[in-house]
Amino acid sequence: MENYDTVVGALAGLRSRGYILDFNLAFDKIICSQSEVCLNPAEFEITETYRFEGETNPSDEDVVYAVESIDGGHKGVITSAFGMYADNIHSDMIRKLSFHRV
What we know:
Blueprint: H1 7-16, E1 21-22, E2 24-26, E3 29-32, E4 37-39, E5 44-53, E6 61-69, E7 75-79, H2 91-98
Parallel strand pairs: 1-7
Antiparallel strand pairs: 2-3, 3-4, 5-6, 6-7
């Protein structure tokens, strides 16, 4: 796994390795508005996770997830999945975002 100093660096590095879709959380699934891809927790794996703390406030956490569909056909990223979204996502999605393969 790579090391990145910034969120922008992580996103650029992942994009250069084929993680080109921008996924968003939608309660019990992830969706990509660019390609209309929609994946339930059983349909994707989190392959890499990068956590960043804010310079002025360590509790300002930003998270970048590298996501790949089980069939390998779709690769993308989710950013800042916790924080303000934590109350609006299904418990299966929270579990999925808490663990990833190494």
